[in-house]
């Protein structure tokens, strides 16, 4: 009888200690779940936007701030798409910082010159201030109103 009680007591302690080591869902790894999880963060990433998509997002703000007509809108759209595509390609190349900076400056200068040729001077100046303000149309409109009041 004593042997039976001792055997039951030892087996109870042994069962409790093994269950304490087991995690949820009957696995021995207490940190991980045995249930399958959804796709990882790599599978959930969205594809980067194309140059056309990026420009199309900004065009309503630019058109509203500069009051562009259809022709000017087409000119600005094509120029911006061209140079945004060049910037994307440059980013893909992963050049060293100094070479990348030089290339970005060349792209910006070429874009500026092409916009200067394609837009009237007053709209080009407004576009440059719009770019400096981070495409915030409200600031450009306020500046335009101030200029009109002065004249």
Q: How is this structure best described in words?
A:
- The chain is mainly α.
- 74% of the residues lie in helices and 0% in strands.
- It has seven helices and no strands.
- Helix 3 packs antiparallel against helix 4 (70-93) and helix 4 packs antiparallel against helix 5.
- The mean pLDDT is 81.
Helix/strand layout:
Elements: H1 2-21, H2 41-44, H3 51-66, H4 70-93, H5 97-118, H6 121-132, H7 137-150
Helix pairs in contact: 3-4, 3-7, 4-5
Region (Disordered): 29-51
Keywords: Signal
Signal peptide: 1-20
What's this, in brief?
With 151 residues, the protein is an all-alpha fold. The protein has helices spanning 2-21, 41-44, 51-66, 70-93, 97-118, 121-132, 137-150.
Rounded mean pLDDT is 81
Give the overall form: elongated
Termini separation comes to 112 Å
Q: Helix/strand/pairing class, anyone?
A: mainly alpha
Fraction in helix: over 70%
Kindly provide the radius of gyration, computed on alpha-carbon positions and rounded to a whole number of angstroms: 32 Å
Q: What is the number of helices?
A: 7
The biggest sheet, with number of strands, parallel, antiparallel or mixed sense and barrel status, is: none
The SSE string, one letter per element, is HHHHHHH
Beta fraction: under 5%
Low-confidence stretches: none
Number of strands: 0
Keywords: Signal
Signal peptide: 1-20
Region (Disordered): 29-51
Organism: Robiginitalea aurantiaca
């Amino acid at each position: 009888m004593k042997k039976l009680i001792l055997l039951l007591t030892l087996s109870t302690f042994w069962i409790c200690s093994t269950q304490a080591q087991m995690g949820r869902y009957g696995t021995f790894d207490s940190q991980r779940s045995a249930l399958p999880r959804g796709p990882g963060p790599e599978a959930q990433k969205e594809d980067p936007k194309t140059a056309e998509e990026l420009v199309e997002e900004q065009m309503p703000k630019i058109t509203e701030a500069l009051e562009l007509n259809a022709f000017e809108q087409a000119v600005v759209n094509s120029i911006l798409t061209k140079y945004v595509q060049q910037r994307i390609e440059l980013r893909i190349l992963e050049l060293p910082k100094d070479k990348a900076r030089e290339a970005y400056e060349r792209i910006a200068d070429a874009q500026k010159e092409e916009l200067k040729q394609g837009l009237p001077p007053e709209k080009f100046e407004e576009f440059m201030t719009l770019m400096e303000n981070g495409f915030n149309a409200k600031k450009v409109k306020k500046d335009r109103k101030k200029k009109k009041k002065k004249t």
